[in-house]
Amino acid sequence: MSSYLHRRAATYLLVLAVALSLNFLLPRAIPGNPLEDLSSGLGNLPIQLDCETLEALQSYYGLDRPLLEQFRSYLRGVAIGDLGYSISYRAPVSHLLMDRFPWTLLLTLGSLFLSFSVAVLLGSRSARKPKGEWKVLLPAVLFESVPPFVLGSLLLILLGVKFPLFPLSGAYSGFSESTGLGTVLDVAHHAALPMLVLSTSSFFPAYLVVKSSVLMVKDEPYVLMAEIKGLPEKTIRYRYVLRTALLPVVTFLGLRLAYSAGGAILVEVLFAYPGVGRLIYEAVLSHDYALLQGAFLAFTLWVVLINFVTDCLYASLDPRVKEV
Amino acid sequence: MKRRLIVATLLLSLLLCGCIGCEGTSSNAESKPIGNGGREIHLPGGDWGLPTPFTFYPRGPGYIHLSLVYDTLVWKDEKDTIPWLAKRWECGPGALQWTFHLRPGVRWQDGKPLTADDVSFTFDYLRRHPVEWFSLEAIASVEAWDDHTVIFHLRKPYAPFLSQVAGNVPIIPEHIWKDVSDPRSTSSLNRLVGSGPYRLIQYDKAQGAYAYTANPDFFLKPPRIGKILFVPTGDPVAALERGLVDQAAIPASLLARFSRRRDFSVLSGPSFWVLTLRFNCVRYPFSQRTVRQALACAIDREALIRHAVPGGLQGARPGSPGFLPPDSNWFDPKIQHMYPYDSSRAESVLRSAGIEDRNGDHVFEGPEGTAMKLTLITTPEYLREAETLQLMLGKIGFELQPKAMDIKSLDALVREGRFDLALTGHGGLGADPSAIPGFGADKRSLHFGAPTDPAYLALTEQLMASSDPSQRMKLCRKMQHLYADELPTLPLYYPVRFSAHRPQVLDGWFYTAEGGVGIGIPLSYNKLVFIRGNPP
Predict the structure, then answer these.
(1) How many CB pairs under 8 A join A and B?
(2) Which of A26, B62, B74, B518 gives 20 to 30 Å between its CA and that of A157?
């Protein structure tokens, strides 16, 4: 077991090393740089940046140093948890990420919990009673085929403007004086629509995985034996069938969890939700090197961590994996 | 049974959230009087940085926030430049010296008096800690002559001094900033002490929410709007419809909808923004001036406005080949019709340049057989205009291939000269003509495609140095003629800006003179609107 985990850990360390280099190089491969963006501003009100100011700013942000030196400084910073200073947000990158990450986590975890809970309930039911499955399949296929930002826009118009039941944007009410339960409900109220949009995109695949997994397990000999023994139906359904059928579902959940933060970008932009996805979107637009590096690093760590946890879970759920 | 229970639980949760939310979505159909007798207004938010001169985001709305807390020496209303911290000013001989006489009795928001030393300190401090928004290149030194007199010594005559420096640089208190070694890392609200009409009392960076309260000791009078709340909005128009904000910019396509409504008033004004077709003047065929002129004749700019974005460009004016828009005080109307739409004239001009269809494939070729198959780079929002141009120029044998990309990539390609034609736009056309990007004398103008002809460059230098209005007007007209003749870019249209507001909350909105707030921000959020309140 431990050698298996050591091997996995070594692989992930290698992935991290490559990701760190790419995180540094990719933003610099985009044409232009953060200061040129400020000064040239095609499409905006251009600023007349004089040479004196340009030099002073380049020196302040370390953009005048050779690339290799910038890379060394970036690595040194990462080692001590200093992710640099965001030019466009005028704030330390680590502070920005710490402020925004919990909101993305709330959206992604909430939407996955919602979609997987309903998928497990309906998927296992459909495997047992295929009749009437179209009632689930029809809306699921419909929502799956609508891009999240289109569905989000429709919901915003319908439930945000026409029937104003939900807030149009943000993660909580601005200047609200509510505390305790009031705050929790306010946050839930703001997260409801974005969470619903995100869950619709992950519900259908999760439903199919659960259904096919239950279908494979329910005719296994040990389930037949349990039925012959006269065990109660609920015990067979949940302890014998569903528990075993959940193995591929856990893997799938891990995968969705790892990549869900990236999928939240469009939804966060649409609902002006203050998550990391929206931060990355704005960082790309403004060529903010430090912020892009920091945000990509956070995403990389998130994906690696989830994969590692999934590996550990998988190894403990299925001992055969350790022997591979 | 179980299924019904699940559905009922889900519905109940949604309804519960919905009902709770109803409390927070108060409509602001009537503005609420607040404690200090003023009124409260809600405006679309968004994060534009902490409003200090060192931490605001260098974009229009960022400067608007800054202007609520800090004051400049002069300001602009709907008509002209007006006295602000300075009650009067003079320009010395040779335009190398500007003297400002400060208004007596002005105090910082912490009660300390604002003096000439603060003004002098501001410029020294900004020189030590430069900010991209403020260009101080022209200033040699700033001298506090006495408590209420400041003298600026310039390196060379700088005609747009009032708009670019005196009306743009916010004056900061020396006693707050003198010991701050890294002002860019400021994050404390305690350092936000200005002399302006409002104080920032709450700032939520992640949500982009700001709360300002009126400064009762403001030197003009206590502002009539007692509280300004910039609230988070995904889509400002949806927020306006729902009553979450009291004013928002609206697209031209929604003009009729808001004009019909009695609870809204609509304001329109020039955007001082231009969409241009930029020619690569160092690459064949656009290295030939006649080809550029022929293309100007082949493009029906009025049809472009009508057909490219139906309803979306209401009120837009066709581009003038002299670059300046008809809304500018410096515009020369004689140039507007210099290249009327005439595709047969365009074809004959092209033939005279040796460009015609030599092999009957409907695509023109140059004298050496180079086919006129060209790439038109643009951003996704102007693809419809690009396709309309493709059709128009297709009629004179120019086969364009529109290619959409993000603005940064387009910007880089243009800067490096790796393009045939570029369809892009920029603002700032309402500024002093010597400071207009793409027209004036500053170095950035070349980046925006200003002519490189020596005669034109000499005129821009004269315009920068001259302070005589009639001489400047003559220079501007000559420049427009040269521009139209050289035609490095073809202005296609100047859109109109629209906003809708609830007049019962605040009805004194206006667009600021000379291109907009500060260096030319064409937004209606001039702080005078909030100070004056509703007109009597």
Answers:
(1) 187
(2) B62
